[in-house]
Amino acid sequence: MAEHTLHGQIEMDITGVSDQEAQGEMTVTRGILNPFGTIHAGALVWFADVIATNLVLGGEPVEEGMDSFPVAMTLNAQMLSNRSDGQLVARARWVKRGRRVSTVRTEVLDAEGRVLLDLTSTHINAR
Known about the structure:
By secondary structure, this protein is mostly beta strands. It has one helix spanning 41-57; strands spanning 13-17, 21-27, 72-79, 87-97, 101-109, 115-124. It has a 6-stranded antiparallel β-sheet, with helices on one face.
């Protein structure tokens, strides 16, 4: 079996969290591209999941060793399009906000408003 070392880097900004929505931005860089020169699906899912998690947290900062964290139980992602450059925006909104379990829908869009990824995630509430 051949051994390989892969390198990548994902950077994103949380640009806003309200009671109903969380938003973030991510610039497409070489560190998230696949061998075909487009965004690796895992990078899009990670971006969407981080934004969804911030909605469930209500804007509370994520810190190592924090007492509770809204772990995702399910992630259902539909990749609809892809890009090789540009700025991406993710927007997470509630589908169902429960006491113990919540469901969030997050869309990742390119600068032209085209949906690249549609992610539905279910989280165990941390609080």
